[in-house]
Design a protein that fits this description.
Layout lengths: L1 E5 L10 E6 L7 H6 L1 H11 L11 E5 L7 E6 L5 H17 L4 E4 L4 H4 L2 H14 L15 E5 L3 H25 L7 H12 L5 E5 L1 H6 L3 H7 L7 E7 L7 E6 L1 E5 L8 H4 L7 H16 L4 E11 L11 E3 L5 E3 L7 H13 L5 E6 L3 H7 L3 E6 L2 H14 L2 E4 L17 E2 L8 H10 L7 E6 L5 E2 L9 E2 L4 H9 L4
Parallel strand pairs: 1-6, 2-4, 2-5, 5-6, 9-11, 9-14, 10-11, 13-17, 14-18, 15-16
Antiparallel strand pairs: 3-4, 7-8, 8-11, 12-13, 15-18, 19-20
The structure holds ligand BES and zinc ion (2 copies).
Length: 486
């Protein structure tokens, strides 16, 4: 789908349809009335014939003889906050697509309330909303050919461009996560990282199973042992001149989580191709950071394994000794994420980072606690928590801070080892998983853990997301990194 930014008069606009929001009392936005007087009069006359109040986000349309347009599509918008704007923009595009339209012009939704910022949210909502993973069904040909985004200034153009970059990174992540595990194996993910770096200011190192063994990455070796697709470890770096901070991002890359010998029941195994979402998100953040040229050094560390049952699998009761000397007794081979993340966190120490953030589809318990739409945030650093929560408020990706309750530490103490990989009870499962990771986080850095088990992958469409991968929390992390000033 091509996009274009347009700031001119309506007569010069070439499109099949004009897309704009309308308020529940059938008023058009003031910005639209000001810019396109004649068109507004025509539309308001048509609107005055309607009786039933539209529902929030309901889209309706009628023929529109202005210029070269065939239709005008209107989305009812009750609250023009950022996420309302994204949702309305996405509903407008979905309707245009359903009508078989090819080229549409979209007025910035929410402009009365948000000014030119509305351009940013409109573009983001439109591009995230227009996403579909249809390559195995329709090829690349379906859908809209072109969207023209209307704006009024050079500032608007910059916001448009930033939104293109950020949404592009999110949709890149969604494409990767949605690919099934028979297509994306650990080594294929590593190749994707290498491909991403071509043409961007990114360096990529891929460690194969021998290198992984040499580095004593004991968690990756154990979890990866049961698959015929060998593990990989990927280190992607972005190093601008004179960076303000050094940030390490760690992403859980389990290309499929069958549970291993602690095999998952069928209904929980389904969807486990998405257990690589953290890894994909880290790649997406690096893509956006490099394209935006942010003045922050960012390292992406991605442990990649397939968790499968086999003669080579690790077992319950196995003891794993990590490079930092910590010993772990395996109680469930399904609590594999924390084991591979531990290796990456130990490796992160060697990079002397200021901040370390790991992103993982780590626990079902987090979804039980917070629901499908909110990620768990764990950190002891109030300032880092504040910054991440501020960033997510702007993006509409929901994070909720949960406690790193040290009283639960006794639940993951091993009988014969320092740690065990699951708690003695299932209570506070998201917290005990986070406490486990904390034992491996670099001691001199601020560390946060984001459990994305709920929002990474949706079974049903929601807001501007179609079912499947959401690319969360790429937008929040890019926003966070953009705000690093010193
Ligand atoms: N990948 C799963 C967590 C998960 C669950 C992600 C649902 C997305 C949706 C993780 O590896 C896992 O299996 N965790 C176990 C931990 C348990 C054995 C302590 C879980 O949550 O049941
Ligand atoms: Zn698991
Ligand atoms: Zn898992």
């Amino acid at each position: 789908m091509k996009t274009e930014y347009f700031s001119g008069s309506l007569d010069e606009l070439q499109a099949d349809a004009l897309l704009v929001e309308v308020y529940r009392d059938f008023r058009l936005p003031e910005a639209f009335k000001g810019a396109f007087k004649k068109a507004a009069l025509f539309i308001e006359e048509r609107l005055s014939c309607l009786e039933k109040k539209p529902d929030n986000f309901e889209v309706f349309y009628f023929p529109f003889p202005e210029g070269g347009f065939k239709f005008v599509l209107l989305s009812c918008l009750e609250s023009p906050d950022a996420d309302g704007v994204r949702t309305a923009a996405s509903k407008l595009l979905n309707k245009a697509e359903a009508l078989g339209l090819k080229r549409v012009a979209l007025f910035p939704v929410g402009h009365d309330a948000l000014g030119e910022e509305a351009v940013y949210y409109t573009v983001e909502g439109a591009l995230l909303g227009a996403y579909s993973f249809s390559k195995y069904k329709d090829g690349a040909s379906k859908g809209l050919d072109e969207v023209v985004f209307v704006g009024f200034s050079e500032e608007g153009r910059k916001l448009y461009e930033r939104a293109l970059t950020v949404s592009g990174a999110v949709n890149y992540v969604r494409d990767l996560v949605n690919e099934p595990a028979n297509v994306i194996t650990p080594s294929v993910m590593a190749e994707k990282a290498l491909e991403l770096a071509e043409g961007l200011a990114l360096e990529v190192e891929v460690f194969d199973e021998k290198r992984i063994a040499g580095l004593q990455m004991a968690g990756i070796l154990a979890v990866g042992g049961g698959s015929k697709n060998p593990p990989r470890f990927v280190h992607v770096s972005y190093k601008p001149a004179e960076p303000l901070k050094r940030v390490v991002l760690v992403g859980k890359g389990v290309t499929f989580d069958s549970g291993g010998l602690s095999l998952k029941p069928e209904q929980f195994m389904r969807g486990m191709k998405s257990d690589k979402s953290g890894a994909c998100a880290v790649l997406g953040v690096l893509k956006a950071v490099a394209e935006l040229g942010l003045p922050v050094e960012v390292h992406g560390l991605i442990p990649l394994v397939e968790n499968m049952p086999d003669g080579g699998s690790y077992r319950p009761d196995d003891v794993i000794v990590f490079r930092n000397g910590k010993s772990v007794e395996v109680k469930s081979t399904d609590a594999e994420g924390r084991l591979i993340l531990a290796d990456a966190l130990i490796y992160a120490s060697g990079l002397s980072p200021d901040v370390v953030i790991d992103v993982a589809t780590l626990t079902g318990a987090c979804v039980v606690a917070l629901g499908r739409y909110t990620s768990g945030l764990f950190t002891d650093d109030d300032e880092l928590a504040g910054r991440l929560l501020e960033a997510c408020a702007r993006t509409g990706e929901k994070l909720w801070r949960l406690p790193l309750d040290e009283d639960l530490m006794k639940d993951i103490k091993g009988d014969f080892t320092h740690l065990r990989n699951v708690g003695k009870t299932r209570y506070g499962g998201a917290i005990t998983a986070a406490l486990f990771l904390k034992k491996f986080a670099p001691p001199d850095a601020s560390w946060a853990h984001i459990d994305i088990a709920g929002p990474a992958y949706l079974e049903e469409s929601w807001k501007y997301y179609s079912k499947g991968a959401t690319g969360q929390p790429v937008r929040t992390l890019v926003e966070f990194l953009s705000r690093v000033v010193s």
